[in-house]
Design brief:
mainly alpha; binds tryptophanyl-5'AMP; globular; three-stranded parallel β-sheet
Amino acid sequence: MTKVFSGIRPSGKLHLGNYLGAIKNWIELQNEADKAIFAVVDYHGITTPFDPKTYPQQVADTVLDYLAAGVNPDKALLIRQSKVPQHTELAWIFNTITPVSWLDRLPTYKEQLEKSSKYNHMGLLDYPVLMAADILVYKSNLVPVGEDQMPHIDLTNEIAKKFNSMFGETFEPVKAKLTEGARIMSLQDTSKKMSKTGDEGIALSDDPDTIRAKIKKAVTDSGKDILFNEDTKPAISNLITIYHLLSVKEIKNIEAMYENKSYSEFKNDLAEVVVDFLKPFQEKRRKFEDDPKTVLNILEKSEDKARELASKTLEEVKEKMGLNY
Ligand code: TYM
């Protein structure tokens, strides 16, 4: 049985990296899998600074992005993580078997600390344990994510193995599913991945003029050839990857199309590829935005079902740990 789980933090507008790195695979997998659950991981989102006044809207926006991108409520459950308390309950149990040394060496934790050491709280350190619980509370075995999440998937497997060895076989191994766009880089700094802030990313909800302006401003490499080489031409290669994945044209065909053309001609065309790709997404998003009742209904039905599934795992876990009184 293939059981898919994935999630995104509602910490800003979803961008092309989130789409190409993760959501694109969700949409394909929801049709093939026996079960698929996609979560807006709002408890993860509060581990970095957030504004309580705007947070509910950010969660709602992420839900709309999921639906607009093609998450199909007939095939998958679409949930808000905090509405299924079994995630955090299992995370607590996992906390009791996870050595701190497994967590404080993780690259995402170190990166966050570099950004702001005043946010060195337990939630930041513990973040991957909650992620393991998100996945294992449904006994999921396939997790479509971008490359940056690989250490967390490895940790999930370590925790599952440790639980099995301490309390008996309960969880099966979890596999990550990476896309070709598993690492889309920032448009402003190709040493960083595309993120949810500023001009370095294209939000799925950006309007055509914003998209054109951001691509125009995107950094390029020295020279003028439009060739794919991630070592010598990281910026152009990143733009070619986006062009390739959104237009479904082969990379070598793109190189041939732009053999005698300039960076600016290539960028102008890329902007139109992105605008055209996002147009149906944005139209669909507006339809859902105008129908909050339907959206709430999808969420509540999914969350009911998710609580039912998750509580079965939790019962089994408690039984095995002698906590079923
Ligand atoms: P988050 O919110 O940082 O990112 C969501 C997903 O988007 C992918 N991604 C990218 N892929 C390619 N290029 C990029 N520039 C890029 N930026 C982001 C991420 O790899 C991810 O798949 N810890 C997770 C959320 C989470 C989760 C889970 C995921 C919580 N519980 C359980 C899977 C299963 C996170 O912070 O993702």
